[in-house]
């Protein structure tokens, strides 16, 4: 007989952003538990609202299958003494299996006799197994945990009721002072307690008490209600999916409604209005058919349409107060010029161990110029980059950003244009924050991209020099995100920027320009370079992980001497493109054989002279000619083309080793051959440390 089981955890209101991950976690933990307990089932249907996490499991088996197994114990020579008496080892083994020594049998394994016990385990009933859902429930983890009462137990919010219903029977267990039953709670204001007779009745019973427990159905209802309002008023509403998810997890019985605000506030930039509505009030903003923002909004109430006018008026009042503040700051901020705000940054701390925001901007300007020169920006772009670096943080001390921190950069661009700055400069001010997340949008302009890299690189350099390096999950200054942003921007722009060389140039430029920097940190800059490179390489590995690139290829391209992110990415792409070639294994083995014979001192040598007069056979001449041909075109080819050219040398390399003893007794010949192999190795390391590749 198939069974149904209902588990409901009733809670105080859960933060909206935690609801969906929590129910997903409960489903996953339940699946794992049932699998461990060998209980089969057909399906698990999740339910979630701000006040409950619930599961309806259908098609549960009656019981666990019985288990017949043969358990192996110690060797016979250990289990019995010389007189054939059972030792303590044998007795303990039998006792541990719920048997006696009389149940022991002997079997031979690899030439030796061992003791065995035939073990029969009767499967538990489904009701016995499901009482273990108490432990599943209590084992859940959350981003934030709290205690309540005098209990030490922690959970996302206090548990207020529990339902554990197998068919029509309550499975008894307790968590703290809450015992399982069959009584659920309806909507906090519209509903009341409701008895659940059987698991299948759960959804309908809660609907009668103004709770739509199915999150997907609730979301669909909200979407339909918003669309109905848009159709009624001839509005365009682009439903933000993240906002819809959040709103859905704030309500149990949704009712969408439309509100209005004074059209005078439309003189404020759209971004400010949208931030006020979407981020602060969880409202959906409204546009006309031409995309122009309208003085209207749509929100969702947790309740029915009774007294909706009062609800609308209340929401309009709250939004108006926030827009009034925004209007005030917008007008006040324009009473000063950019120089006024830039001057104020002298008193704003970047970090108390590092210096002021002004000093950070000066260092960023130096780095930005180095980047611009290296990647070939035009004179106009370099001039725009210089101007942007001088002012790009000015909006931090404006009243608008003080009130709406989310608008950093956005208001910088708006105000820069109002104050007469060039559009390219204003755009770079906004773009220097990009990307704001792991998969966020990237700068669209060269000037913005260079400023974004420079700002992030200075932050990383400064914090590393101050020995404030991320460890474990601790990254208070988001340095990992900033480093990953640099990787993404470099890849997007295809800018070749050797970071170690840039670090050296930065230190020289700091000295030459006499830019103020905490003296205690200046001495740490050079020693931090290697750690910064390793940190950046980890972010490159993070990018490769997202692309599911083979780990050995990742190790190969990130373990080499290159500090150019784009080269690492291109080298990996070249290896990935050829990894399935029929000759990949032979080619890599040939090239790595050469690399293993090459010592580091030769790789560091400024020149590696090879004298053809010392060649003793044609194999040496053919390798010499082949390497010179690859070398002559190496800089003009793509990494993939260079890989193919090197792979084509495989039969020549094999023939060379067949015909020659590299470590010849004649010192001149030995040195000549080692130099010849080192020349080839210097080419292969441009593709990475090929010795890291797994080709077996």
Automatic annotation (TrEMBL):
It is found in: Cytoplasm. GO terms for molecular function: glycine-tRNA ligase activity. Keywords: Aminoacyl-tRNA synthetase, ATP-binding, Cytoplasm, Ligase, Nucleotide-binding, Protein biosynthesis. It is an enzyme of class 6 (ligase). Its EC number is 6.1.1.14. It catalyses: tRNA(Gly) + glycine + ATP = glycyl-tRNA(Gly) + AMP + diphosphate. InterPro entries: DALR_anticod-bd (IPR008909), Gly-tRNA-synth_bsu (IPR015944), Gly-tRNA-synth_heterodimer (IPR006194). Pfam families: DALR_1 (PF05746), tRNA_synt_2f (PF02092). Residues 589-686 form the DALR anticodon binding domain. PANTHER family: GLYCINE--TRNA LIGASE, CHLOROPLASTIC_MITOCHONDRIAL 2, GLYCYL-TRNA SYNTHETASE. Belongs to the class-II aminoacyl-tRNA synthetase family. Tetramer of two alpha and two beta subunits. NCBIfam families: glyS. This is Glycine--tRNA ligase beta subunit. It comes from Furfurilactobacillus milii.
């Amino acid at each position: 007989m198939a069974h149904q089981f209902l588990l409901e955890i009733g809670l105080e209101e859960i933060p909206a952003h935690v609801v969906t991950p929590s129910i997903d976690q409960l489903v996953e933990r339940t699946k794992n538990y049932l699998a461990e307990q060998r209980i089969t089932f057909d399906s698990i249907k999740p339910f979630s609202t701000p006040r409950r996490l619930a599961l309806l499991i259908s098609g549960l088996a009656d019981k666990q299958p019985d288990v017949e197994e043969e358990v192996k114990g110690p060797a016979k020579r250990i289990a019995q003494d010389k007189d054939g008496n059972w030792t303590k080892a044998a007795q303990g083994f039998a006792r541990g299996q719920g048997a006696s020594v009389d149940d022991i049998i002997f079997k031979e394994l690899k030439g030796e006799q061992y003791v065995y016990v035939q073990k029969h385990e009767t499967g538990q009933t489904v009701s016995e197994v499901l009482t273990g859902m108490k432990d599943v429930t209590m084992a859940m983890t959350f981003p934030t945990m709290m205690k309540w009462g005098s209990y030490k137990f922690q959970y996302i919010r206090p548990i207020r009721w529990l339902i554990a219903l197998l068919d029509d029977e309550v499975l008894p267990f307790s968590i703290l002072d809450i015992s399982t039953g069959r009584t659920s709670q309806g909507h906090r204001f519209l509903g009341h307690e409701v008895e659940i007779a059987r698991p299948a009745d759960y959804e309908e019973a809660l609907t009668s008490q103004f709770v739509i427990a199915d999150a997907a159905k609730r979301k669909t209802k909200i979407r339909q209600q918003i669309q109905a309002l848009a159709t009624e008023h001839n509005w365009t509403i682009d439903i933000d999916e993240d906002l819809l998810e959040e709103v859905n997890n704030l309500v149990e019985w949704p009712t969408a409604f439309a509100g209005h605000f004074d059209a005078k506030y439309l003189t404020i930039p759209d971004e400010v209005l949208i931030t006020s509505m979407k981020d602060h009030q969880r409202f959906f903003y409204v546009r006309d058919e031409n995309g122009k923002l309208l003085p209207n909004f749509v929100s969702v109430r947790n309740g029915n349409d009774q007294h909706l006018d009062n609800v609308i008026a209340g929401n309009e009042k709250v939004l108006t107060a926030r827009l009034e503040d925004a209007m005030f700051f917008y007008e006040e901020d324009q009473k000063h010029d950019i120089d006024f705000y830039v001057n104020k940054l002298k008193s704003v701390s970047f970090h108390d161990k590092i210096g002021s925001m002004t000093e950070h901007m000066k260092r960023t300007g130096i780095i930005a110029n180095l980047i611009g020169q290296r990647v070939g920006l035009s004179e106009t772009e370099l001039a725009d980059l210089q101007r942007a670096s001088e002012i790009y943080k000015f909006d931090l001390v404006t009243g608008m950003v003080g009130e709406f921190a989310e608008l950093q950069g956005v208001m910088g661009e708006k105000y820069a244009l109002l104050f007469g700055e060039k559009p390219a400069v204003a755009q770079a001010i906004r773009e220097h924050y990009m990307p704001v997340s792991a998969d966020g949008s990237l700068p669209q302009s060269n000037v913005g991209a260079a400023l974004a890299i420079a700002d992030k690189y200075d932050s990383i350099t400064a914090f590393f020099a101050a020995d404030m390096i991320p460890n474990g999950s601790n990254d208070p200054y988001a340095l990992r995100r900033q480093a990953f942003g640099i990787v993404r921007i470099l890849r997007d722009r295809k800018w070749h920027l050797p970071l170690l060389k840039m670090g050296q140039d930065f230190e020289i430029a700091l000295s030459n320009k006499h830019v103020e920097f905490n003296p205690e940190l200046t001495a740490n800059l050079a020693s931090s370079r290697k750690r910064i490179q390793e940190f950046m390489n980890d972010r490159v590995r993070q990018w490769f992980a997202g692309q599911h690139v083979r780990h050995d290829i990742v190790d190969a391209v990130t373990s080499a001497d290159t500090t150019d992110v784009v080269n690492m990415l291109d080298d990996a792409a070249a290896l990935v493109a050829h990894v399935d070639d029929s000759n990949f294994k032979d080619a890599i083995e040939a090239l790595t054989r050469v690399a293993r014979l090459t010592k580091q001192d030769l790789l560091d040598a400024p020149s590696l002279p090879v004298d053809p007069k010392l060649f003793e056979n044609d194999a040496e001449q053919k390798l010499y000619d082949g390497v010179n041909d690859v070398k002559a075109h190496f800089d003009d080819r793509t990494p993939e083309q260079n890989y193919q050219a090197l792979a084509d040398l495989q039969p020549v390399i094999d023939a060379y080793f067949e015909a020659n003893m590299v470590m010849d007794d004649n010192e001149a010949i030995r040195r000549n051959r080692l130099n010849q192999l080192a020349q080839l190795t210097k080419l292969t390391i441009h593709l990475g440390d090929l010795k890291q590749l797994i080709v077996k």
